Write a sequence for this structure.
């Protein structure tokens, strides 16, 4: 496990689990994205799970960043699952019209792992 | 009375006897007083009330209960009456409190005063007082009851009961008028329930809903989309023909799986959850 | 955790990246102290995040002021910058985006949807002032 900036990144099976620990300012969010995508490229992992349980605000910038992570990861052969979105954040995102792009929302870690396993099996 | 004692002094002297008779009367009235409170509470309540009454009338004012000397007594009476209302006593059961006290006082007066004219006068004075207290009790009781009923109606108006259908599967049979407040409450309740029960599928059943306007449709869509962002699939069942035609007329796309009936919703959910219902072969 | 139960007025400078986080955290705490529920707190914090970012990225930096209004029945947020201003701000608000305006427009539209009242006063060459208000639902005042 390592802590880069303000997010912890674990390896689980053939995937990475990234958990931003707290609200990231824009520069940190970009750094987070770059670090993750670098890891995806280097280790050739086939799936990425982003756990947003510690995040209390997802604004348009954060939404866009997550979308960019998903798009770029897809180009590198890795699907992105998002878990842990808080109810009040989900409501606000919907009201604002913010989406997670290509990232797939899943209910919890088990389901995210199951989803990613099925994706790689299919590929 | 033996000496020229006033009612107040008399009550004070005979307090213990009156208390015993009063308690006996309540017990005999066959109400639910004893189901709903302990013996200790009952003793404490009657004793303090009588003591407070004795204190109040020691001012020799038997008429005007709005005066300050009656304040503590009325407060106590209000408290007792409200709690009776909250506990679900009937109006009669709550009136028993004062009525049986009136009886007890009359009994005592009758035992002690031999002069009929004097007895009548004392009974009248104390009777008027206890009647005023009884009316006060009754008004408090009714006001409390109405407040409680109103609160219950309001709670029902806004609550959205949830059914735990199976592991990871919940249902919300919506009912009543789906106004802004209700829809907002529903959304947070549904999303919290998704987290709490890890519900992969939520069935939103609209069988009991008669009409949906544009605003309600949009709020429902938002709720479903928020659930989707959390990784849960909210499906709609039970859309009536009239609701269906108003949705079509509004030109709204619900963007969610809709199934005709609750059972079809459950079947769908079971498929998602990879569950199967198998009939036992006997 | 800083609480502002009695403060009626909070100011935050928005001059760098991290100030956006600071502004929205202060807004959330202020909203909570006023009696807003968690969902409204999140709406307010998110709206602040959007507008503060606009002030920083497009306006070159600015200032946020938080205050209570009408005897603590509501919350008012004002974010001001002295940047180039937004030409055709009314069109931007309704979604008619001029060339570079997409992020700006989306942020403004989104924030507007989250708040009860939303006013934007922008003069090219002078700057932009956004005023947002949210009212406590009846019966939830502290």
């Amino acid at each position: 496990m390592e802590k880069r900036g303000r997010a912890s990144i674990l390896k689980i099976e053939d995937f990475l689990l990234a958990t931003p620990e707290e609200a990231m300012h824009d520069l940190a969010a970009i750094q987070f994205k770059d670090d993750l995508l670098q890891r995806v490229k280097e280790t050739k992992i086939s799936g990425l799970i982003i756990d947003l349980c510690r995040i209390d605000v997802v604004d348009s910038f954060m939404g866009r960043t997550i979308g960019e992570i998903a798009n770029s990861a897809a180009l590198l052969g890795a699907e992105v699952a998002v878990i842990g979105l808080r109810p009040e954040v989900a409501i606000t995102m919907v009201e604002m019209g913010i989406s997670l792009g290509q990232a797939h929302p899943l209910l919890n870690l088990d389901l995210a792992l199951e989803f990613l396993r099925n994706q790689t099996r299919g590929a | 009375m033996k000496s020229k004692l006033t009612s107040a002094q008399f009550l004070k002297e005979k307090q213990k006897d009156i208390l015993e008779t009063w308690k006996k009367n309540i017990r005999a009235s066959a109400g639910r007083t004893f189901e709903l409170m302990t013996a200790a509470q009952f003793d404490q309540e009657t004793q303090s009330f009588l003591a407070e009454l004795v204190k109040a009338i020691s001012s020799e004012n038997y008429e005007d209960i709005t005066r300050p000397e009656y304040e503590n007594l009325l407060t106590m009476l209000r408290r007792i009456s409200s709690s009776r209302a909250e506990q679900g006593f009937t109006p009669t059961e709550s009136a028993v409190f004062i009525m049986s006290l009136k009886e007890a006082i009359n009994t005592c007066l009758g035992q002690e005063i031999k002069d009929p004219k004097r007895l009548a006068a004392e009974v009248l004075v104390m009777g008027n007082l206890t009647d005023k207290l009884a009316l006060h009790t009754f008004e408090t009781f009714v006001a409390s009851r109405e407040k409680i009923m109103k609160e219950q109606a309001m709670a029902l108006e806004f609550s959205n009961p949830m059914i735990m259908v199976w592991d990871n599967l919940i249902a919300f049979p919506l009912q009543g008028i789906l106004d802004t407040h209700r829809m907002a409450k529903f959304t947070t309740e549904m999303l919290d329930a998704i987290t709490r029960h890890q519900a992969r599928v939520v069935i939103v059943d609209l069988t009991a809903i008669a009409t949906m306007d544009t605003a309600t449709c949009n709020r429902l869509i938002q709720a479903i989309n928020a659930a989707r962002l959390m990784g849960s699939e909210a499906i709609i069942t039970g859309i009536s023909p009239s609701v269906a035609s108003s949705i079509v007329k509004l030109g709204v796309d619900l963007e969610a799986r809709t199934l005709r009936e609750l059972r079809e919703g459950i079947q769908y959910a079971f498929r998602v959850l990879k569950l199967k219902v198998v009939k036992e072969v006997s | 955790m800083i609480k502002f139960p009695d403060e009626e007025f909070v100011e935050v400078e928005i001059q760098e990246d991290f100030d956006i986080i600071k502004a929205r955290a202060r807004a959330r705490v202020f909203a909570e102290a006023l009696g807003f529920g968690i969902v409204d707190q999140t709406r307010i914090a998110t709206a602040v995040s959007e507008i503060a970012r606009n002030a920083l990225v497009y306006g070159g930096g600015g200032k946020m002021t938080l205050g209570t209004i009408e005897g603590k029945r509501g919350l008012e947020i004002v974010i001001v910058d002295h940047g180039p201003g937004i030409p055709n701000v009314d069109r931007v608000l309704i979604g008619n985006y001029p060339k570079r305006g997409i992020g700006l427009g989306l942020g403004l539209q989104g924030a507007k949807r989250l708040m009860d009242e939303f006013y934007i006063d922008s003069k090219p060459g002078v700057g932009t002032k956004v005023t947002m208000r949210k009212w406590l639902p009846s019966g939830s005042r502290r």
Chain A has a mean pLDDT of 92. Chain A touches chain C at residues 23-27, 56-61, 87-89, 91-92, 95-98 (CB under 8 Å). Residues 1 and 10 of chain A are 5 Å apart (CA to CA). Residues 26-43 of chain A form the longest helix (18 residues).
